[in-house]
Batch of 4 targets.
Target 1
Amino acid sequence: MSSSEKTSSSNYKVKLVFPDSIKIGIVVSEWHPEITEALYLGAEKFLLDNGIKKENIIRKNVPGSFELPLGAQLLADKTKAVICLGCVIKGETDHYHFICEAVSKGIMDVSLAQNKPVAFGVLTTNNLEQAQNRAGGKFGNKGEDAAFTVLKMLAV
């Protein structure tokens, strides 16, 4: 879908065997907390709506998006899947590009090394307004979409 269309996974249900016994980790960046908390709430709601028990959702906070892969690695041993939630907003320097590349590669590496779903729920935007639009705003909640992704992958 184009970015001009609202996307949402909230209308979808994922059929899992024994969803009430599945543990899901969620690693949340503390940088841009107004955005990452909204992403977390979207992910948590989707998991609960799909039968994951609240006590089986394990949340860990990390200082920033760069630390998400290590947070995911630490949670991967305790869970069936991990959702990584963060927000990187472009600034005036190249720092944005280095962080985005490192985070996306790190999350993929954890998923492949652990042989389990690790979802990339990291917003990479040009400004705060774009992030707000994707954290429960007019383009849906990408935390919810990341939760959909891990459940869908668990069903594969």
Target 2
Amino acid sequence: MLIGVPKEIKNFEYRVGLVPGSVRELIAHGHRVLVQKGAGEKIGFDDNAYQQAGAIIAETAEQVYGEAEMVIKVKEPQASECRMLRPGQILFAYLHLAPDPEQTKLLQESGCIAIAYETVTDKNGGLPLLAPMSEVAGRMAIQAGATSLEIKNGGSGMLLGGVPGVAPAKVVVIGGGVVGTNSVRMAMGMGAHVVVIDKALERLYHLDLQFGSKINTIFSTTDAIEKHVMEADLVVGAVLIPGASAPKLVTRKMLSQMRPGSVIVDVSIDQGGCFETSKPTTHDHPTYIVDGVVHYCVTNMPGGVPRTSTFALNNATLPFALALANLGYKEAMRRDLHLLNGLNISGGQITYQAVAEAVNQSYVPATQMIM
């Protein structure tokens, strides 16, 4: 199979779909890889590194999309990229379609086979291709929150960990999954007072076992969220419903009662955000202020540390990429129902129920598309 790796074009996005080591692995299995010129240059992988791994260097994105049978990238394709996709071509990337009806429509019109990293599952019910970026984003959320608390960035001028004789900041993490767990670890390590809120008692139990008395675990209710958000210096939104839009758990009324200079970091923004006042931002303009509260809502947070993120992502995606290339997408999905769960759009049909419901369209079970 001929596999294409385009250069990412989203704002401040320097991650790349395949590192040279992954290219070499695919070529060792008899495939060909076409990499757009400069695709990995910003993170230390120049064109020569890809050529030494056996890749062919393409001058333009048009060449990559025009020739490749499968396109492997990181972020969701922008409108110009969607229009270069063609019927039957495989797209393997993060898509986050639920809050993005325009991208959904363009992918349907293209006729491509769109497989979303974020809905591929594993035997434990986890999301193995989302997990590495969730780990990065969870850790970055605390870094970003700590910086946003500085007075020059609109924050209250509070040091996250405090100093002897001065109380630390209160950090509230809504959601105890992969993002939340990593946020808790970082915030705790920096000396903050940490509260984590989740609706799954089993998750809270595991967090309590992992971190002990250094954190407070709270069962999620509207009352609990309101109480702790109002008291917080930094709130991290780490809520995920796979493939679906994030629920708006923090209302503007709650937010308006926070202390001026407090900060929210909405890691759920890729799925629409879990704060009523959230709107997507970018790495060059990451924050804005509503009711005196600093909002950090960057949609590709791991893109801020693209080298680390690219390696972490490739470690997770390579086995699935090999399966798709070796077997073709239909046979690969027949053999692996967890990979089948990644199929979001096929031949113009929406094949992931949560996406169909979010964009108010009909749904065709993915199993029907691989018969």
Target 3
Amino acid sequence: MKVGVPREVKNHEYRVGMIPATAHALTQQGHEVFVEVGAGEGSGIDDSEYVAAGATILDTADAVWGSSEMIVKVKEPMPSEYERMRKGQILYTYLHLAPLPELTTALLEREVTGIAYETITDDRGGLPLLTPMSEVAGRMAALVGAYYLQRFEGGRGTLLCGVPGVPPGDVVIIGGGIVGLNAAKVALGMGARVTILEMSADRMRFIDDLFHGAITTVASNPFNLREALTRADVLVGAVLIPGRSAPKLVTRELIGVMKKGAVAVDVAVDQGGCFETTRATTHSDPVFEVDGVVHYCVANMPGAVPRTSTFALNNATLKHCLALANLGAEEAARRDHHLANGFNTYRGQITCAPVAESQDRAFTPLSELL
């Protein structure tokens, strides 16, 4: 199979869809890999490393898209890339289609096989290709929250760890999943007081055991959420419903009960965000203020640490990349139902129920089309 790796074009996105080790694994099995010139620069990977791995460097994105049966990316295609997609082409990347009807329409009209990292599952019921970026984003959430608490960035001027004689700041995390746990690890490591709001009693027991009681767990409900927000210095939205738009758990009215100069970090922004006040921002213009609360809602947080993120992502994506290249999309899906769960669009149909429900469109089971 001919596999293409274009340079990412999203604002300040420095990750790349494939590292040399992945290119080497593909070429060793007889596949051709085309990499756009400079695609790996942001992650510290030189073109010569791809060449040494057996890949071919092409001068333009048009050449990469035009030469490839499968495109391997990190982020969803931007509008400038829609015209490059063509019928039957496999697109293997993060898609986050639920809040993106325009991209969904483009994939359907061009009959692209859109395989989303974030809906591929595993035997444990997890999302193995989403996990590494959730780990990165969660850890970053605590760091950016602490940074924007600084007064010159619009924050209330609180040092999260405090100092002797002055109490530490409060970090409130909504959701005890991968993002929430990783945000908690870093926040606790910085010396903050950490509270996680979680709906599952079993998950709260797990968190309590994991951190030996150092983190407060609270049942997530409107009453407890309001109380927690009144004392939060940093709020982290870490809510995920696979494939669906995130629920708006924090209304504007609740943002209004927070301290002036508090920081709200919405890690769920890729799925539309879990704050009513969320709007997607970029690394070049990352924050805005609503009712005195600083909002950080960057839709590609891990892009700020691309070296770590790119290699962590490829550790997870390699297995299915090889299966798609070796078997083709259809046979790979027949053999692996977890990979089949990643098929969001196929032959002009939406094959991911949560995406269809979020956009009020028709859903066609993949099994009916294969």
Target 4
Amino acid sequence: MNTTNYEFKQLDGTSSGSIKELFVSVFSAEPWNDDWSDKTQLHAYIQDLTGQSNSLTFGLYEGTRLIGVSMGHIRHWYSGTEYYIDELCIRTETQGKGAGTLFIREIEKTCKEMGLKHIFLLTENNVPAFAFYKKRGYSELKTNAAFAKKL
């Protein structure tokens, strides 16, 4: 993989248009098939992730095109401050070419430089992202469980 065309950046609110486009293009496709046709809901969700005082958003660019985004927040915990990744995606046609590996390594490096102690994220165990994170040294937390209740 030629990494000279990639640029890693910390993003702010001025990138929301390109973030929305990338996010919808990835998560509206297989295996997620999420319906983000409600633009008001999409805008509110991206704002929830990127527009808070503790938000931390990273982007990976190929030239001027955003090909990767990580949206999350800083969380203070008893064992140290951590980056909680709410959403991470790589443009579909770029997946499997090393961009995701480069991106996660840059995120880890930057978080470490910021003095953060952990990175925490959730993913489903039946999607390709599960194997991606396992391969890169992330541990499945066997003693934790995610709960949800439809109202």
